[in-house]
Design goal:
Number of strands: 21
Helix content: 10-25%
Mean pLDDT: 95
Largest sheet: 7 strands, antiparallel
Structural class: alpha+beta
Strand content: 35-45%
Distance between the termini: 63 Å
Number of domains: 2
C-alpha cells in the first residue's frame, strides 16, 4: 500500500499524532566455507511501521502503540490495524509530550550504496588474506544491504535517506598437533573497509597461535588491566548511556550538566562527542529514527556533561527541545602512549568469553579467553582462563587512555584503556 493512502487513513483516524517509517532493504548474502562459496541469496524487503499517539480526555497524558506490516496489505486491514493501535495506545498513560516539527526537508545520499560493488570488495578482500596451516579462516559470512528509509509524521516531517549497512562474520581457527581452537568475530560497517579487515583478521590469527600455547591465568588479586579490543567499547558505552536523557529523567543516571561525573579523578577524563558522520560506520545518518536531525555535539568534556542525547519523549519532559537519538560517537584520546600503557606489570585482555558493564551500577565482569601478562622486566606471555571484575565508578578514578584511537563500527575510542585495581581471579 502506498504511504499516501496510509497517511489518509491515519488523518481520518482521530489519533492525536502519528508516525510512519517505511524501510526498504535490498541486499546480498554470501556464505563461505574456507574460501568456497557454499550458498548466496538476495533480499528485497519492505517493512512499514505505523505508530499512533492518543491524547487522554484531560489532555494530560499520551499513549502510544506501534505495528509493523508489509507493503501489500489492503486498506481494510490497515484501517483495522490503526483502530486496534488507537485502542492499545488509550490504555497507556505517559505524561503529555509532543512530536517534533520538521527541521530539514531533504538529505543527500550519505555514501555510495552499490551493493554489488561493496559485496565484490568484501569477497576480494577475504580471498587475499595471508593464512597458513596453523592459523586460517574456517568460514565467513557476508551481508551487504542498501537501505532506503522514509519517515513521515503528523507534524510535517517527510524525509527519505539511503545508506549502506554491511556485516562480516568470520571464524578463524588455529591448531597444532595437540588441539584446535576457534575465534568468532563480527565486523559491522557501512562500506567494505579492506585495510581494517586485513588488519583485524591478521591480529586474530596471531592471537589464535598464542592461545594454543597459553598458560593458565594466575591469581593476581588487585591488578592493572588493559582493554585493547572491541570489548573496551562496553566501558565507554557506560558513559554514553549515562548521558541518555531517558536515564537522566528516570534517575538511573546521576549526571548533571556542568558537574563532574566523579569529583577528584586523578587519571584521564572522558571527553565524548556525538558525530553525525564517522567514516566506515554503519550508523551514518542525517536524521534519527524519529526524524530529528543528527549533528556533531560535545556531550561530555573532561568528565563534565555538556549535553544529553535521546528520544523526543524524555527530551520534552526534561525541557530539552533540540536533542536527537545518538548514532555515532567518539572519545578523545588520552595522555598516554601505547607503550606506556602496556608497560608491566599489567594484564592486557584481548579476548573474553563474555564481557559486561552494568549500565546502572557500573559493575564489570569478564571471563578471560586470551590475555597477555606483561611483566616488569618487559617479558610477555599469553594466558587464558580466570576473570576480571570491579566497579567502573571507582575504577574511572585512575583510568588511563592512549593517545591513539581505534574505530569499532559507530564508536571511535582510545586503542588502549588501562584500569588500576581490577580484581583478577586466576584459572589455577
Amino acid at each position: 500500500m502506498k504511504i499516501e493512502k496510509i497517511k489518509e487513513l491515519l488523518e481520518k483516524s482521530g489519533a492525536f499524532a502519528w508516525r510512519i517509517t517505511d524501510t526498504v532493504t535490498k541486499g546480498w548474502e554470501f556464505y563461505f566455507i574456507r574460501h568456497s562459496l557454499d550458498q548466496n541469496r538476495s533480499k528485497d524487503i519492505e517493512n512499514i511501521q505505523i505508530t499512533v499517539y492518543v491524547l487522554s480526555d484531560d489532555k494530560k497524558s499520551v499513549g502510544t502503540a506501534s505495528a509493523d506490516m508489509g507493503p501489500d496489505e489492503t486498506p481494510e486491514y490497515v484501517e483495522l490495524t490503526i483502530k486496534d493501535l488507537i485502542y492499545q495506545a488509550s490504555l497507556v498513560q505517559d505524561a503529555y509530550y509532543e512530536l517534533k516539527a520538521p527541521a530539514i526537508n531533504e538529505v543527500p545520499a550519505l555514501e555510495d550504496a552499490d551493493i554489488n560493488k561493496i559485496s565484490g570488495d568484501f569477497i576480494d578482500t577475504m580471498k587475499n588474506l595471508e593464512e597458513d596451516d596453523e592459523a586460517f579462516v574456517n568460514s565467513y559470512e557476508i551481508f551487504v544491504s542498501s537501505i532506503t528509509r522514509r519517515i513521515v509524521t503528523s507534524t510535517g516531517i517527510d524525509i527519505t535517506e539511503k545508506y549502506p549497512v554491511s556485516l562480516l562474520e568470520t571464524v578463524v581457527n588455529a591448531k597444532n598437533r595437540d588441539h584446535e581452537i576457534e575465534f568468532y568475530n563480527l565486523y559491522d560497517s557501512g562500506l567494505c573497509l579492506k585495510d581494517d579487515i586485513r588488519k583485524n583478521i591478521a591480529s586474530t590469527m596471531k592471537h589464535g597461535r598464542n592461545r594454543l600455547n597459553a598458560e593458565k591465568t594466575p591469581s593476581l588479586e588487585k591488578y592493572d588491566v588493559v582493554f585493547s579490543s572491541d570489548d573496551a567499547v562496553r566501558i565507554y558505552e557506560f558513559f554514553k548511556d549515562a548521558l541518555d536523557i531517558a536515564y537522566i529523567c528516570m534517575k538511573y543516571s546521576p549526571l548533571e550538566k556542568g558537574k563532574e561525573v566523579v569529583p577528584g579523578i586523578k587519571g584521564d577524563k572522558v571527553t565524548m562527542k556525538a558525530v553525525k558522520n564517522l567514516p566506515g560506520s554503519s550508523q551514518n545518518r542525517e536524521v534519527d529514527s524519529e526524524g530529528s536531525p543528527i549533528r556533531d555535539e560535545v556531550l561530555m568534556e573532561d568528565g563534565i556533561p555538556k549535553a544529553f542525547h535521546g528520544s523526543t519523549r524524555f527530551s520534552y519532559y526534561m525541557g530539552e527541545k533540540d536533542t536527537f537519538i545518538l548514532s555515532n560517537y567518539e572519545v578523545s584520546g588520552g595522555t598516554h602512549t601505547s607503550e606506556e600503557l602496556l608497560k608491566g606489570p599489567v594484564l592486557e585482555c584481548v579476548y573474553f568469553s563474555d564481557f559486561q558493564v552494568d549500565t546502572l551500577t557500573g559493575d564489570i565482569f569478564g571471563e578471560i579467553r586470551l590475555a597477555y601478562l606483561h611483566e616488569a622486566d618487559g617479558s610477555v606471555k599469553p594466558v587464558t582462563g580466570g576473570s576480571v571484575s570491579g566497579n567502573l565508578r571507582m575504577l574511572m578514578m585512575d583510568m588511563k587512555m592512549s593517545e591513539d584511537r581505534t574505530r569499532y563500527d559507530n564508536a571511535l575510542i582510545p586503542t588502549y584503556t588501562r584500569l588500576s585495581g581490577v580484581t583478577v581471579t586466576g584459572a589455577e
